[in-house]
Write the structure tokens for this entry.
Amino acid sequence: MASSSATDFVLRPFEGLPGEPDWVALREVVPAATATARTTAEHGSRDVVVTTVLPGGWQALHREDGVVLLALQGVGASNDTSRYLAAALLEALASEPGTSVLLDPPADGPRLQDVLDPTVPFEVTVQEGFEFWLDGGAERTDEVEASLQQAAESIIPTVKLESVPSAYWCRMNREFLRWALPQDEDTVIDALARLQARRASGFAGGKFVGAFRSSGLVVPVWELPRGTAAADLEEPAAAFRATLDGALGDDAPLDANERRARAGIVARQVTLR
């Protein structure tokens, strides 16, 4: 993981970090959130606010109050997203307060796995707005307030479930659950195919409708009955997790029905990056 060459493509750039599925979710399917991280002692034991997005497409920001933010959605094409993010983070840490960071992909250098303390949990807080962009003493002019309001209007209502890890309810034209899973792609797709073949892939009245692929992980998506609230999913999701875990742990060859179900899932998979 951390020893990969800068020229190598890394399928799972967040592998080895605490909360890998949540890193992927914040990069791809969560509009506004923050999460906790800290650099290693070698890099100053500095607290870092990992977030979904920063203004101006910045990759990182050293706020005037000294808080350092790292954005997962501000990174362009790179063979190794982890190395790219680590470069942005180190640049922000070394910069004066009030500095934003925009970088080209680095030719070499450490990865997040080298820079962040693996004992610090990646605790996610879904946000309803982007006030966290500003430090507490920043002037809230009419222009700033209008900019924050405009940004907030683009946020899809999203809630992180408490009963299962890395699962996010959202409301668009209707309600969906998007659940990032830590197992490798083939294991997840096989498990979903087993459940689909025996008509056991839905829960809480919802149906499994497909999956995203990103950063080497799979994010299955369920379409929920209209009006389903996030709180309505907590118990059903916890119960379904046992069913899902059973399918994930089944390594028997797929039968004919399961292979057909798998082909259908793969055909409608969407690769985000």
Summary: The radius of gyration is 20 Å. Residues 196 and 244 are 11 Å apart (CA to CA).
